[in-house]
């Protein structure tokens, strides 16, 4: 059966992994996140994102590895893949940006969100309700910076994944 033998082919997993990676990045960045932000009250949105992002960043870190390990050049030479084929660079960028979000920026964001929750209790109002205390203003500013860094890393990863698709398409002769 050709379908079953396809499931053991590296090329099958290569395309499925890349497609899942790009699709999840696009969905989270432009559909799921924005829709949830508009549809949910702030506290519920924050809770949802706090649960989604560790899973999302884990997936965004694992899938580039699968794409790299199933790349057609790996059947010829791992050194060719690691020493700078044009295909490896975008996936390595995606891997690095996602790993930074997973291991550094995401936990820092969660830590700031917890600190804001504590400060809300002290202040007797939500982090977004005016007037905000100096402590809350500081935490909100830190959150904005860290969130901005996370968004930038995510955008770079998305663009790198799309760039890989362009390289892949050119190699397929499409």
Describe the structure.
The chain is mainly α and 174 residues long. It has one domain. 82% of the residues lie in helices and 0% in strands. The chain has six helices and no strands. α5 (88-123) packs antiparallel against α6 (134-172). The longest helix is centred in the last third of the chain and has 39 residues, at 134-172. The two termini are 27 Å apart. Keywords: Membrane, Transmembrane, Transmembrane helix. This is TMEM205-like domain-containing protein. Residues 16-117 form the TMEM205-like domain. It is found in: Membrane.
Question: In terms of topology, how is this protein built?
Answer:
Blueprint (H helix, E strand, L loop, with lengths): L1 H5 L3 H30 L2 H28 L8 H5 L5 H36 L10 H39 L2
How many beta strands in the DSSP annotation?
Answer: 0
CA-based shape: elongated
Q: Termini, distance in Å? A: 27 Å
Summarize the amount of helix as a percent range: over 70%
Beta-strand level of the residues, as a percent range? under 5%
Could you give the order of the helices and strands?
A: HHHHHH
Average pLDDT for all residues: 89
**Weakly predicted, low-confidence segments:** none
Radius of gyration (CA) equals 20 Å
Going by helix content, strand content and strand pairing, the class is mainly alpha
Largest sheet: none
Number of domains: 1
Number of H/I helices = 6
InterPro entries: TMEM205-like, Xanthocillin_Biosynth-Assoc
Protein name: TMEM205-like domain-containing protein
Keywords: Membrane, Transmembrane, Transmembrane helix
Subcellular location: Membrane
């Amino acid at each position: 059966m050709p379908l079953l033998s396809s499931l053991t082919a590296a090329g099958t997993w290569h395309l499925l992994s890349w497609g899942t990676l790009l699709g999840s990045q696009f969905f989270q960045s432009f559909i799921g996140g924005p829709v949830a932000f508009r549809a949910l009250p702030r506290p519920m949105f924050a809770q949802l994102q706090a649960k989604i992002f560790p899973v999302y960043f884990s997936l965004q870190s694992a899938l580039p590895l699968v794409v790299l390990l199933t790349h057609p050049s790996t059947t010829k030479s791992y050194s060719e893949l690691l020493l700078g084929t044009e295909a490896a660079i975008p996936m390595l960028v995606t891997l690095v940006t996602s790993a930074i979000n997973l291991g550094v920026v995401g936990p820092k964001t969660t830590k700031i969100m917890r600190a804001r929750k504590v400060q809300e209790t002290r202040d007797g109002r939500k982090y977004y309700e005016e007037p905000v205390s100096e402590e809350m203003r500081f935490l909100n500013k830190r959150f904005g910076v860290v969130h901005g860094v996370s968004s930038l890393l995510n955008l770079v990863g998305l663009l790198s994944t799309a760039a890989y698709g362009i390289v892949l398409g050119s190699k397929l002769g499409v």
